[in-house]
Amino acid sequence: MVETISADEFRDRIDARRRGDRSFTVVDTRPEESFEGWRVADAVHYFYKPFHEFDLADFERETGLSPDDSVVTLCAKGKASDDFAAELAAAGYEDVTVVADGMRGWSAVYDRTDVPLPDALDDAPPIDLVQVQRRAKGCLGYLAVGGREPGEADHVPAGAPADDADGADRVAVAIDVSRHGDEWVAAAAERDASIAAVLDTHVHADHLSGGRALADDLGVPYYLPAAAADRDVAHAFEPIGRNETLDVGGVDLKALATPGHTDDGASYLIGGAAVLTGDTLFTEGVGRTELQFSAGGGDESAAGGDGDEGAAGAARRLYDSLHGTLLAEPDDVAVCPGHFAVANDGTTGGAEPGDPVFTTVGDARRGIEVLDLDRDDFVDRITRTLPEKPPNYESVIAANRGVESPPDETAAIELELGPNRCAAEPDAAPAADDD
Predict the structure, then answer these.
(1) Are strands 245-248 and 238-240 parallel, antiparallel or unpaired?
(2) Are 72 and 29 contacting, i.e. CB atoms less than 8 angstroms apart?
(3) pLDDT digits (tens, 9 = 90+) for 327-376
(4) What mean pLDDT do residues 85-99 have?
(5) What is the pLDDT of residues 253-310, one digit of tens each?
(6) How does the average pLDDT of the chain come out, rounded?
(7) What count of other Cβ atoms lies within 10 Å of the Cβ of residue 339?
(8) Which residues of 203-214 are buried (b: 16+ CB within 10 A; e: fewer)?
(9) Which residues contact 152 (CB under 8 A, 6 or more apart)?
(10) How does residue 427 score in pLDDT terms, banded at 50, 70 and 90?
(11) CB 337 within 8 Å of CB 363
């Protein structure tokens, strides 16, 4: 008998396997090119096309599997793998499971976890920082929850009384929200909080932002860094300027201008305890600087030149943002990035999905090798080692600027499939050929 499970249930089984509580093999039936470009960690490949003759001996020779094994089948949308699972069941395999919606479903799997913060001062209001992890892409968003009921200084949902905020006791803001804004709404509900504002750290290149849509749904302000106005962003937003603050339940959210990855990039300092760095500073590296200037349109004109020229200038700005702004914060401030690395083979390096992904200013300063370089060597390293670009990044940037829009949900899913690729290469290998 074939069992069908959701992508969330698949995540839970993978976690159980990692703990040693389950054993199974994931068989990915997509074409080899798709498999090589992006897959679940430890999956094996066997191409299967529905309505073609299934060769059991060939399958077992290629995969090393037998009817005694537990098999989970996976494809792009869940259709081919469903047919394939039926073939295995007919061939005597008794433990076969299909992941509904395939890699499309896997792309929308999330984890939510609390980021541990340094102890607050005795008179400081409590703050929770929830990290919302998009597991297959490595995208990280946040919900910052302040410690008191909303008052006159806070933004509250349109139509909600200032002393009630739809029955919630605490005030929250959502940062770097993906298309699946319900994850942030659920995180707020778990903490009896009302989302009072939505912010993005920059115009993203690797995934479709859901910030504007979530703000509209909740009737709250949507913020972008003030410099986004120079990127010809077409949809409405509230600009948040350098050193401007928002009150989040008695906790200050301060916008730090950190251009480099993009000209509009900002980092958000939350209560002096954590800084949300977007794609400026990661736990093991820094952001790449050429994507904005390779995308054409308003982004290219903002660069003042072609992608290479714009990337070098942006790398100099990134160096200044890192050393003059972020690394100037106290050593114990938590650094909460916008991504963790996901390789094409699905591995995540030092990050463990489901556990908080963060470092501290002090650990970043001491542990990230590229931060030891002087300005000229840093610029050379960042512009000489360009990794593969994110899939469809020009269209993703255009959508996030509000100048294009995917025609439907299917197109939106296809547009952002694949891992994020917003970090600079960690080594000094030759630049990748993106032609």
Answers:
(1) unpaired
(2) no
(3) 999 999 999 999 999 999 999 988 998 999 999 999 999 999 999 999 99
(4) 97
(5) 999 999 999 999 999 999 999 999 999 999 999 999 988 877 654 454 344 444 456 8
(6) 89
(7) 27
(8) bbbbbbbbbbbb
(9) 162
(10) low
(11) no
Task: Tell me the pLDDT band of 382, cut-offs 50, 70 and 90.
Answer: very high
State the sign of the Cα–Cα–Cα–Cα dihedral 406, 411, 412, 416.
negative
Q: Which residue type, as a one-letter code, is found at position 72?
A: V
CA distance linking residue 151 with residue 253, whole number of Å: 16
Measured distance CA(343)–CA(420) in Å, rounded? 9
- Helices 211-218 & 182-190, crossing angle to 10 degrees? 60
pLDDT of residue 426: 61
Distance CA 389, CA 412 (A): 18
Strand residues in 135-249 grouped as ranges (E): 139-145, 170-175, 193-199, 222-225, 238-240, 245-248
CB 35 within 8 A of CB 45: yes
Q: What is the 3-state secondary structure (H, E, C) of 35-59?
A: HHHCCCCCCEECCCCCCCCCCHHHH
What pLDDT, in 10s, does the model give residues 176-199?
Answer: 999 999 999 999 999 999 999 999
In terms of Cα–Cα distance, which of 199, 220, 206, 180 is closest to 142?
199
Residue whose pair of structure tokens reads 């920059």 in the numeric block: 202
**Residue 175, CB-side half-sphere exposure with 13 Å CA sphere:** 32
User: Would you list the DSSP string of 92-155?
Assistant: T---EEEETTHHHHHTT-EEEEEPP-PPPPTTSPP-EEEEEEETTTTEEEEEEE-SS---TTS-
**Neighbouring C-beta atoms of residue 356, cutoff 10 Å:** 18
In which residue are the tokens 């191409």 written? 47
Distance (Å, whole) CA 195 – CA 197: 6
Q: DSSP letter string over 303-348? A: HTS-HHHHHHHHHHHHHHHHHHTGGGS-TTSEEEESB----TTS--
Q: Which residues lie below 8 Å from residue 358, measured CB to CB, with a gap of 6+?
A: 115, 116, 131, 274, 283, 334, 335, 336, 337
Give the angle 139-223-205 at the CA atoms, nearest 5°.
35
Structure token pair of residue 7 = 């992508």
Three-state DSSP state, 30: coil
CB 412 within 8 A of CB 208: yes
CA 77 to chain centre: 21
